[in-house]
Amino acid sequence: MYDLIGVLLLNGLAWGLIIALIALGLSIIFGLLDFINIAHGDLFMIGAVLAWTTVDVTGNFWIAFVLVPLIGFAAGCLIERGVMRPVENSPALSIVASFGLSLILQEGVRATFGTTPKRLMDPLGVTVELFGFQYEAYRLLAALIAALAIAGFFLFLRRTKLGTWMRAVRQDREMAIAMGVPADRIFMFTFGIGAAMAMLGGVVAAPITSVEFRLGLDVLPLCFIAVIIGGLGNLPGTAAAAVLLAVMEGLVSAFAEPTTARIVSLVVMSVVLLVRPNGLFAPARR
Amino acid sequence: MLKVEDLHAYYGKSHVLRGVNLHVKPGEAVGLLGRNGVGKTTTMKAIMRLMPSASGHVTFDGAPLDGVDPFRVAPLGLGIVPQGRRLFPKLTVYENLCLGLAKDPPAEGLSDIFARFPRLKERLTQLAGTLSGGEQQQLAIARCLVMNPKMILFDEPTEGIMPKLVAQIRRQIREINKTGISVLLVEQNIKTAIEICDRIYIMEKGEICFEGPAEALKNDQNIVHRYLGVALR
């Protein structure tokens, strides 16, 4: 019994770190640009599809770790210019615009990739014995890669000029411009980073899930719940909330339907909104 | 150094700048006075290209600013110390200080700044939002100086500052001006303006309605009373 819980916790952790990676991208795009990106889950799905395609074409999974985030960054920049810029300063319109993008991405993949869910081979093909179970070593690696990417993102935000500029533009766009910060380029860059993180999440997750055009639909609500529970704009809070949620959903779905697990998440979110509307990790109200 | 010609600007439908003309010579300190809402801050924003001007020209250091990307204005040597200081509260003092520089300088590169603002040196890793009002104003001035400006626009730098510190800020602005940096100062406090500036403009309803040496204001109570509605103590 305890062995099973141990495995479930590990699964939840790996999945939670991947969700955290995606949710962080969602959160910086929302926090900086007031853009509610409904297509964010689909960027994750595209990442997984591209990972599958990379294996299909080159036979090498690891190339996807380099290639796909780069494609994601470029795609994010294009989306910022083409989809976001025209509806700038209108969060409501951003929902409509990105919902349209979401449909285009899903239907585009359905038309080219097909509707059948596909599975990737375990890229390591190694298992380790944990809690008396044979555990796929790749899941541990997936957790590690996601954790490293998250740590790298925070280091970038804290330690580089570009990261400082991103935080400055978010706090006071006009003053940042008056100090010589190219805010428009920062916006584009932020969208690029956010999209790259979602697509990297897709690559990491591809071998431990089934790859199909609806993959983003399940992930997006969880990311939004993580952003809300973590506190809007609270990036470390978002990451922590994502891990907590995924672990919790993993544990619940071991004993009940996955739908029940999602209901539990929604209930937790509602309670957090009622009791701590600024997020679970926000300091007590001033 | 700075020349503003027939500058017009609108907020929505309201015509807030109705043909502003002013100039600042190299090394000069010029005051821009006027009651609340006559367009002083708008003039500064339009000069910095932070808001679009409908017509008119701004020339800085011999080159036109019309059509220049707003973020390229500061690197040309035109800095602003805005109303209310507008620091980035969740960035550290150091991050605020070096924000406008493409690369963070080595510690000794900031020694001039620290000599002028010793308090900031002790607080580099603190968040800017936790500084006192006076310290925040120091930082707002310092982050502008770090970029080696040729001219600084000050928008009500003594507003909301403890009376004890007002004299210190006046002195600092004068010292900055003495190093050859031109100053355009927007003020509500006439005394501060007269003390710092060589020349004064007064604005009314989006236009310049008076121009003269600071001395003239000191000696002619009528001007002060007519345009600013206050008596100079």
UniProtKB/TrEMBL annotation, chain A:
CDD domains with a match to the protein in the record: TM_PBP1_LivH_like
Any Pfam family the entry gives: BPD_transp_2
Keywords for this protein: Amino-acid transport, Cell membrane, Membrane, Transmembrane, Transmembrane helix, Transport
Superkingdom field: Bacteria
Localization (cell): Cell membrane
Bilayer-crossing regions: 12-33, 61-79, 91-113, 137-157, 186-207, 219-247
GO cellular component: plasma membrane
Main location: membrane
Keyword Transmembrane helix part of the UniProt annotation: yes
GO MF term set: transmembrane transporter activity
InterPro entries to which the protein is assigned, alphabetical: ABC_transp_permease, BCAA_transport_permease
Keyword set includes Transport: yes
Gene Ontology biological process terms in this record: amino acid transport
Membrane association type: Multi-pass membrane protein
Family, as annotated: Belongs to the binding-protein-dependent transport system permease family. LivHM subfamily.
Official protein name in the record: Branched-chain amino acid ABC transporter permease
Native organism: Methylopila jiangsuensis
Automatic annotation (TrEMBL), chain B:
Pfam families, per database record: ABC_tran (PF00005)
GO biological process: L-amino acid transport
CDD domains referenced in this protein's UniProt entry, alphabetically: ABC_TM1139_LivF_branched (cd03224)
SMART domains hit by this protein: AAA (SM00382)
Gene Ontology terms for molecular function: ATP binding; ATP hydrolysis activity; branched-chain amino acid transmembrane transporter activity
Source taxon at top rank: Bacteria
Domain ABC transporter: start-end pairs: 2-230
Keyword terms of this UniProt record: Amino-acid transport, ATP-binding, Nucleotide-binding, Transport
Keyword Transmembrane: no
Keyword ATP-binding among record annotations: yes
InterPro entries: AAA+_ATPase, ABC_transporter-like_ATP-bd, BCAA_Transport_ATP-bd_LivF, P-loop_NTPase
PANTHER family, sorted: HIGH-AFFINITY BRANCHED-CHAIN AMINO ACID TRANSPORT ATP-BINDING PROTEIN, HIGH-AFFINITY BRANCHED-CHAIN AMINO ACID TRANSPORT ATP-BINDING PROTEIN LIVF
Similarity comment text for this entry: Belongs to the ABC transporter superfamily.
Protein name: ABC transporter ATP-binding protein
Organism per entry: Methylopila jiangsuensis
